[in-house]
């Protein structure tokens, strides 16, 4: 009887424990289910984000950034730019001619007389007499310089070089009587002149190329804001050599003012490599090669003494 009661009590307790465990497990399962559902939702969200990112990554490969022009648009823009450049050149040439007309006195009132057959015929005899006496035409220099400056802005090479020489105080063909300080308000004339000469060199003027090379070598005409730079000087001398090589003139002759024969350019480069400095590393091997090449070039130009001098300098670099 006691055994039966003990068994039923144990069964009742076991049943109670099982029931509580079941409840706890059901509660745990519900929490685990909610966590599993949340985790699956996060996984799906991450997967969707990755798919979306991969999709846009592929789309970007075929997309074009904003502001990027198509080939046809680039071609049209290039043609328009060339057309505008041509128009600027024409406009600049007109202003250059106007500056020249001012210098010639075309806009200065002249003494006139009326003939029986022709009217408004200007007498230039008096004007020629004044020129012979050393008296120049009193034209409007400010107006002439204004037209010259417009021509320079339009990219006319002659105007650029003329204004550069004005800034340096050098002689120039156009507007010879114009004093730069009287018509040009600029606190750094030398620096501005060098920038103009460098622009002319970029446009392919050989004398300007050599001028810029010499300026970077010696430090003259650079203005207060720049210092000598031998690497730049070497680069400009090499550009001058390429101009001589590609031109139809003799490389060892001086065809016009400012241009130097080939052996002189090679010698200047050799000197800089032999000494080193101003940003250029000393290279005696390079100096030897340049001196030797300069000697050969001088020999071709029938400059025997210079050739011997260059050979001697080359031997000193060994």
TrEMBL record:
Gene3D superfamilies referenced in this protein's UniProt entry, alphabetically: Tetratricopeptide repeat domain
GO molecular function: kinase activity
UniProt cross-references to InterPro entries, sorted A to Z: TPR-like_helical_dom_sf (IPR011990)
Record keywords: Kinase, Transferase
Keyword Transferase among record annotations: yes
Highest taxon of source: Eukaryota
Keyword Transferase: yes
Protein name as it appears in the record: MHCK/EF2 kinase domain family protein
Species for this entry: Wuchereria bancrofti
């Amino acid at each position: 009887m006691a055994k039966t009661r003990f068994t039923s009590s144990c069964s009742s307790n076991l049943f109670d424990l099982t029931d509580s465990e079941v409840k706890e497990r059901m509660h745990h399962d519900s929490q685990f289910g909610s966590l599993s559902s949340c985790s699956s939702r996060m996984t799906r969200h991450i997967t969707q984000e990755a798919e979306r990112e991969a999709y846009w990554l592929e789309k970007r490969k075929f997309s074009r950034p904003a502001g990027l022009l198509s080939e046809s648009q680039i071609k049209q823009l290039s043609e328009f730019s060339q057309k505008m450049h041509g128009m600027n050149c024409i406009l600049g040439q007109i202003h250059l001619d106007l500056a020249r007309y001012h210098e010639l006195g075309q806009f200065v009132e002249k003494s006139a007389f009326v003939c029986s057959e022709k009217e408004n015929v200007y007498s230039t005899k008096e004007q020629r007499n004044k020129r012979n006496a050393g008296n120049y035409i009193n034209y409007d220099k400010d107006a002439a310089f204004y037209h010259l400056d417009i021509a320079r802005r339009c990219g006319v090479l002659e105007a650029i070089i003329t204004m550069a020489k004005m800034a340096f105080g050098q002689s120039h063909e156009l507007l010879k009587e114009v004093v730069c300080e009287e018509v040009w308000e600029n606190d750094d004339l030398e620096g501005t002149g060098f920038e103009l000469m460098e622009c002319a060199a970029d446009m392919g003027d050989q004398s300007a190329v050599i001028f810029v090379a010499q300026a970077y070598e010696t430090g003259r005409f650079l203005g207060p804001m720049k210092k000598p730079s031998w690497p730049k000087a070497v680069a400009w001398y090499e550009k001058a050599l390429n101009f001589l090589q590609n031109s139809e003139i003799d490389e060892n002759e001086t065809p016009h003012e400012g241009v130097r024969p080939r052996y002189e350019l090679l010698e200047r480069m050799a000197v800089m490599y032999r000494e080193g400095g101003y940003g250029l590393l000393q290279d005696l091997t390079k100096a030897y090669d340049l001196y030797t090449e300069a000697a050969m070039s001088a020999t071709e130009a029938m400059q025997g003494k210079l050739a011997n001098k260059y050979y001697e300098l080359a031997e000193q670099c060994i």
